[in-house]
Design goal:
The structure holds 2 protein chains of 2 kinds.
Chain A: H1 2-28, H2 35-53, H3 57-79, H4 84-104, H5 106-109, E1 115-116, E2 122-123, E3 126-127, H6 131-153, H7 156-166, H8 168-173, H9 178-204, E4 206-207, H10 214-227, H11 233-251, H12 259-277
Antiparallel strand pairs in A: 1-4, 2-3
Chain B: E1 2-13, E2 16-27, E3 31-35, H1 42-49, E4 57-62, E5 65-66, H2 72-77, E6 80-83, H3 95-102, H4 111-116, H5 118-138, H6 154-167, E7 172-176, H7 184-199, E8 203-207, H8 211-217, E9 220-225, E10 228-233, H9 235-240, H10 242-247
Parallel strand pairs in B: 3-8, 3-9, 6-7, 7-8
Antiparallel strand pairs in B: 1-2, 1-4, 4-5, 9-10
Helix pairs in contact in B: 3-5, 3-6, 5-6
Classes of the chains: A mainly alpha, B alpha/beta.
């Protein structure tokens, strides 16, 4: 049963990542390759505050979100007033820089050795200890995040983001301050990615930089390309599929030595097929063109 | 009285002067047409006015305030609306959402307000929604409200772009070839809309290649060639100018 709760917990964590990236890719039309960096920033900030200062879970979560939002401004303010391609490059650069810092700043992050013994969350005296209770806890947080992202997306704010995605020039001619909307959308997405990171660190009770690589950013992007973007159902469906898929492969008894490679090949084939035959993903609203 | 003025404005691209020391003035409540051959600098003038380009020299002022150097969204917020030649709709959004996006100063355009003051945003949205439906009704697209903009015919897309522009509640309209590519019946609808705007005191500047349209609606006409104003006056005066007639063979 713990195996099922583990999978469901991972689905909860990745649902937040996928839905927040969806705000950038599906709503605003911004391709970001730095989502795993903000995921990692959230995980490390909360872990460091909890373990070094003994700060409780909730303030650590808050500081992780705040830190992630502030760091997002470093790349968004200079790059988002430029054309889309520059933003992709800036996000790629940021992802690599964050990984390099996490890997090499050993005094603080313990680098490749990682940080173990991360405490499980304690919410107002309630200890979230078992895998089952962590599933419920992460489910509640994922539901809150999904609700907030729904409210944000399904609003005039979300409508402007979609207008920017469709035609920036036209949206600007209607008086919409394009860089401002993009910076805010990026900050929101980064803040939610940090929530996933905090949940991940508390769940595994161990983090190291290899969980927050460029490949992880690409994986989150694959989730929403396959599931679909521009609404809630696409990213959620994509998350369920992409988390469950490796488990299905496990039942096919593919040898462990080649299983990761087979998985990557299947992801690649899926993305190609989706882009060719279903450009809006399995359940998305926005067609990539 | 001019509501918008370009004073000695120059814009150069790779050494070519697209707009060359041009001075233009546009009267409030009037329809002024910009005519001239392709490459005369007309669309560049629109890009300069709406802030998508900034002049290398000269000053653009709107309501006696300099606007050259401002961002396009700041200029739009000041009341200058623009209809693009190539329509530029939000294709993967519904017809109604295209119009709703145009409305200014929406409370729900703040991400925070859309979460913490949801009911107020919903209330405002209801009002805006009925305004959007009136505009869609006006251009005859009310029953297409839930259709994606990309599924409309070209003529309908043009009409939607007009509805969206009206939603932006501008005081000065820049219309880049509004009648291009649409049937004569729709041209009439467009001209009615344009006339109605000036009856409401709005100012309209039109780039137009259809000389019948120019004669029918214009109060004033500028003829531009190679980035400079060659002729200015009443429609019949300008179109009677031999140089202008040479530019438009068959007139």
């Amino acid at each position: 049963m713990n195996y099922v709760f583990h999978l469901l917990t991972m689905i909860n964590i990745y649902t937040i990542l996928a839905l927040s990236l969806n705000l950038l890719v599906g709503y605003t039309g911004l391709l970001s390759l730095s989502h795993a960096a903000f995921y990692g920033i959230g995980a490390y900030i909360s872990t460091l505050f909890m373990m070094n200062i003994g700060l409780p879970f909730l303030p650590s979560l808050f500081l992780a979100i705040l830190g992630s939002v502030l760091l997002s401004l470093i790349i968004s303010i200079p790059s988002l007033s430029l054309k889309g391609d520059y933003f992709v490059l800036a996000s790629l650069g940021f992802q690599i820089i964050v990984f390099t810092i996490l890997y090499n700043w050993i005094d603080v992050t313990r680098g490749p050795y990682g940080i173990s013994g991360i405490p499980r969350p304690n919410i107002l005296g309630i200890q979230v200890e078992s895998i089952a209770s962590y599933f419920i806890f992460s489910g509640v947080l994922a539901a809150i995040c999904a609700g907030l992202l729904y409210l944000i997306g399904d609003s005039p704010f979300g409508r402007v983001l979609k207008a920017i995605r469709e035609d920036e020039i036209s949206a600007a001619a209607l008086g919409k301050n394009i860089p401002r909307f993009k910076v805010i959308a990026f900050a929101i997405a980064s803040g939610f990615a940090a929530v996933s990171g905090v949940l991940f660190a508390g769940y595994l009770q161990y983090i190291d930089p290899t969980s927050f690589t460029l490949m992880e950013s690409v994986f989150i992007l694959s989730i929403i390309i396959i599931g679909g973007t521009g609404n809630l159902s696409g990213p959620i469906l994509g998350t369920i599929l992409m988390i469950i898929l490796p488990e299905i492969l496990r039942f096919l008894r593919i040898p462990d030595t080649i299983a990761p490679n087979v998985r990557e090949i299947i992801y690649g084939i899926l993305i190609i097929l989706i882009m060719r035959f279903q450009p809006q993903g399995l359940s998305g609203e926005y067609k990539f063109e | 009285m001019s509501i918008l003025e370009l004073d000695n404005v120059t814009k150069t691209f790779d050494g070519v002067r697209a707009v060359d020391r041009t001075t233009l003035g546009f009267d409030k409540g009037k329809i002024t047409s910009l005519i001239g051959p392709n490459g005369a600098g007309k669309t560049t003038v629109f890009n300069l006015i709406s802030g998508f380009l900034h002049p290398d020299e000269g000053v653009i002022s709107y309501q006696d305030r300099p606007i050259s150097g401002l961002a396009p969204w700041d200029i739009a917020q000041m009341g200058i609306g623009r209809l693009f030649q190539d329509v530029r709709l939000f294709n993967q959004m519904t017809v109604k959402d295209n119009v709703l996006t145009a409305f200014k100063k929406q409370r729900g355009e703040s991400a925070l307000m859309s979460v913490i003051a949801r009911w107020k945003v919903a209330k405002e949205e209801q009002l805006l929604s009925s305004r959007a439906m009136k505009l869609l009704d006006f251009v005859g697209l009310a029953e297409k409200e839930e259709e994606l903009a990309e599924n409309l015919s070209y003529g309908q897309q043009k009409l939607l772009s007009i509805a969206r522009l009206l939603g932006a509640d501008a005081d000065l309209f820049l219309l880049d070839e509004p009648t291009a590519g649409i049937n004569p019946q729709m041209v009439k609808v467009f001209l009615d809309v344009i006339r109605r705007l000036t009856e409401e005191g709005k100012t309209v500047i039109v780039i137009e290649h259809n000389m019948n349209v120019v004669i029918e609606i214009s109060d004033w006409v500028y003829f531009m060639d190679e980035g400079q104003v060659v002729s200015f006056g009443l429609p019949n005066e300008v179109l009677g100018d031999p140089e202008v007639r040479a530019a438009y063979v068959g007139l």
